[in-house]
Amino acid sequence: MRRVDFYVHGGCLSEQSILSLAAEVLELDPTWTVTVHQLTEPDIERQGFAVLPAIVINGRTVATGVPNKEWLLRKMGERTQLNQ
After folding, report:
1. Structural domain spans, the chain
2. What is the pLDDT of residues 5-28, one digit of tens each?
């Protein structure tokens, strides 16, 4: 699986940063499925996130907040190697 999901609270201040980061990641490595989920309060509770934004790689939460692009790409590579 090569999937990265970005979860943000719809309308939050970091939403634009996450959208930009997701677009950059997809442009740099189009072999990944990249999805941004804009959540509302009921969705946040249902998903069980204590902090947003949250970044989930291959089903595992790896970060909260807005991470550095290089750090995220490194984590994506690590998760790919673990899944092989």
Report:
1. 3-83
2. 999 998 889 999 999 999 999 999
The pTM of this model reads: 0.90
Q: What is the CATH number of domain 3-83?
A: 3.40.30.10
Q: For the residues of 1-44, what is the DSSP string, one character each?
A: --EEEEEEETT-TTHHHHHHHHHHHHHH-TTSEEEEEEE-HHHH
Contacts 24+ apart (CB under 8 A), 70-78: 72/4, 72/21, 72/25, 73/25, 73/28, 73/29, 76/2, 76/4, 76/25, 76/29, 76/32
